[in-house]
Amino acid sequence: MGLITRLDRIMADRKMSANELAERIGIVPTNISRIRTEKINAIRLSTMEGNCDYANYL
Predict the structure, then answer these.
(1) Rounded to whole angstroms, how far apart are CA atoms 41 and 16?
(2) Any idea of the CA torsion for 35, 39, 41, 46, to the nearest 10 degrees?
(3) 8-44 tens-digit pLDDT
């Protein structure tokens, strides 16, 4: 069972682009796209932590 991402919903609620989120958490926009579409096999804990920290920050 994989992670179910709600990144699209969070980004839409906050009117945020993939480029803006990627810049804020320090990864490339391509990886944001892969996370959003769940086309990833693995994710670094630091990336996951950055997403969670940013989601809780706003």
Answers:
(1) 25
(2) -10
(3) 888 888 898 989 988 988 889 988 888 888 887 777 8
